[in-house]
Amino acid sequence: MKKALILALLCLAGAAAAQDTPSLEEMWKIIQQQQATIDSLQKQLAEQTEQVKVTSEQLEADVEAQQEAIAVVADAIEEQSAPANRVKIGGYGELHYNNLDSGDEFDFHRFVLFFGYDFNERTRFFSEIELEHALAGDGKPGEVELEQAYIEYLFNDSTKGTAGISLVPVGILNETHEPDTFFGVERNNVEKNIIPSTWWEAGLGLNKQFNDQLGLDLFISSGLNVPTSGSKAFNIRSGRQKVAEAVGSDLAYTARLRYNPVPGLQLAASYQHQTDLTQGALDVAADLFEINAQYQRDGFGLRALYAQWDLDNNVNTVNAARAEQMGYYLEPSYRFGADRRFGVFARYSVYNNDAADNNADDVEQMDLGFNFWLTPTTVFKFDYQDQREGGSDDGFNLGVGYSF
């Protein structure tokens, strides 16, 4: 503005020099007119600047509102498309032929279906329904079982909780037992009779992964209810209630520590305490201790496991029936050929859970055999079993299994 006034004065001065000088009053009017013009222009500029600012803020608000609307629509579309991308279906099965001293038998041992659903990124549902021995019903050999049905909630990337029917976190096979994941037609006797796999209970679980090497699993659940008389008295496997109107007088508390010190090596130790293994009948406390190792490097594999139950000795019936039940096995294996589709194994196992005879010998068994994976999840199996001490059920087994 000052520059404009100076320019006006210079113009007036030039005009005065060239011709008659105007009066001071006329000069002042000219200056006032120019000043008014300048003020008007400044006012228009300020108004236009404010209008641009308001328009910019409005545009930003409109863009943000449109983005929120798009997010809402996207969520709605995702909800509507849930059946396509949130439902999970799978399963496994295995057919066995057993040619043993105890008899020859064909048996579609297990037919299993998995069903899951992702409610959102944090909340999921898992379930497993199994038909054992192909035919269930009165007088039939099989059973229809609900082995898993639980909700899983992810608290964060390293911590999750579960509620419902879950597999007990113990052993090697109890949680991972699809036929393409292990050697041998039948599951090993130690995990079958001592742990006893497959073992599921109803309860609350917590899984924590501290880092890439160390993890912890906790499970508070329903417990076993073993018979207190007869040939199966205090037999651990006979105590599974399978969450079928299960007596819940005494709970079970399970903890497992997982450790992976180097690539290919997995170590785990589990401990369970149950205040009364008979659910109020005799007040018999019981403790399970189990430790296992799995190693895989190139084609070479090794599995080893030891498990032991200790029952309260305060009741004489327990002393006579079996206060301690234990088992262990060692299983080296080797996979070879194109895509390592062929595998051979040997397993040495020892166990003793004969509740009917406190003086029974340990059952010592040697298994030799091979697997052929037609695909990574379809497998053909053969093994020969030789029961040495404590048993005489020798022979061979054939099997085919799959998972998807």
TrEMBL record:
<keyword id="KW-0732">Signal</keyword>
<feature type="signal peptide">
    <location>
        <begin position="1"/>
        <end position="18"/>
    </location>
</feature>
<dbReference type="InterPro" id="IPR023614">
    <property type="entry name" value="Porin_dom_sf"/>
</dbReference>
<feature type="coiled-coil region">
    <location>
        <begin position="31"/>
        <end position="58"/>
    </location>
</feature>
<keyword id="KW-0175">Coiled coil</keyword>
<protein>
    <submittedName>
        <fullName>Porin</fullName>
    </submittedName>
</protein>
